[in-house]
């Protein structure tokens, strides 16, 4: 679990958030007009980045750096090791859902989170293709394009559950498929796999999904959405045997409070069987 903090001290988060939204929208325009770009192979099975990922990340770092002097950056691209958290830390994914981007699937997002110490105090996730911007400031609620959002209250039998397959890590494929089958046969309404964890978590925040889980997500995948999800009233925790840590890859479950415990038990029973 994350710590607690008083955001009344330090920079004006509301004013800063408005500037971050402007910067993220600018970066979104860079994604939408991109074409004829180079694709790079990264570590892991079929794990790619593009020159657009790099260009967007550099734009974000350049524009965000002056907003909080000395803030640490945790970045998906061009960073070999994850640094320790600072007094303030930006966590950035320039394009979450790069494979979707490459394939023209038009379901990708920019994710930016701001932490004070170990606590997420501001998050934004932006899908530029449909101009949907999810945002939240700690203690002030969650929003989609400026309109308040909250999680659903649907029970498990009518729940639509999003999931990820940890697709870069095929050693986890058998476990992921076993969990998927159990989650479905326990009796939810249906399942969804869209390939962009940041948006999937935000879909829980606004009630389109009732839950989302994935066995291996890096901090840049979940940081921005985690703040939005909690502010929308969801429960969000690391899956066993992991513990919440913004500097590490962890298994994640976010869900409306009605189904959270049942879904966590269903998933963790299978994980712990394998341990």
TrEMBL record:
Its cofactor is Mg(2+). SUPFAM superfamilies: Carbohydrate phosphatase. GO terms for biological process: inositol metabolic process; phosphatidylinositol phosphate biosynthetic process; signal transduction. Mg(2+) 2 binds at residue 93. Its EC number is 3.1.3.25. It catalyses: a myo-inositol phosphate + H2O = myo-inositol + phosphate. It is an enzyme of class 3 (hydrolase). It comes from the Bacteria. Mg(2+) 1 binds at residues 76, 95-96, 221. Keywords: Hydrolase, Magnesium, Metal-binding. InterPro entries: IMPase (IPR033942), Inositol_monoP_metal-BS (IPR020583), Inositol_monophosphatase-like (IPR000760), Inositol_monophosphatase_CS (IPR020550). Belongs to the inositol monophosphatase superfamily. This is Inositol-1-monophosphatase. It comes from Treponema primitia (strain ATCC BAA-887 / DSM 12427 / ZAS-2).
């Amino acid at each position: 679990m994350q710590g607690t903090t008083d955001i009344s001290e330090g920079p004006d988060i509301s004013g800063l958030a408005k500037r971050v939204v402007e910067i993220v929208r600018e970066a979104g325009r860079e994604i939408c007009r991109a074409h004829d770009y180079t694709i790079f192979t990264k570590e892991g099975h079929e794990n790619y980045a593009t020159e657009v990922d790099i260009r967007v990340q550099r734009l974000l770092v350049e524009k965000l750096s002056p907003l909080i002097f000395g803030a640490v950056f945790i970045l998906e691209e061009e960073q070999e090791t994850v640094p320790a958290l600072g007094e303030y830390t930006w966590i950035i994914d320039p394009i979450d859902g790069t494979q979707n981007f490459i394939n023209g699937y038009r379901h990708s997002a920019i994710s930016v989170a701001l932490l004070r110490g170990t606590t997420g105090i501001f998050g934004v996730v932006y899908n530029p293709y449909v101009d949907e911007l999810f945002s939240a400031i700690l203690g002030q609620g969650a929003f989609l394009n400026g309109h308040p959002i909250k999680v659903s209250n649907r029970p498990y039998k009518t729940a639509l559950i999003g999931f990820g397959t940890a697709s870069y890590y095929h050693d986890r494929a058998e476990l992921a498929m076993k969990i998927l089958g159990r989650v479905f046969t326990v009796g939810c309404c249906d399942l969804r796999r869209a390939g962009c964890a940041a948006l999937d978590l935000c879909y829980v925040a606004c009630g389109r999904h009732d839950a989302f889980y994935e066995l291996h997500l890096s901090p840049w995948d979940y940081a921005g959405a985690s703040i939005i999800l909690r502010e929308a009233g969801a429960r969000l925790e690391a899956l066993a045997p992991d513990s919440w840590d913004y500097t590490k890859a962890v298994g994640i479950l976010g869900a409306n409070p009605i189904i959270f415990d049942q879904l966590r038990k269903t998933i963790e029973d299978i994980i712990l069987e394998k341990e």
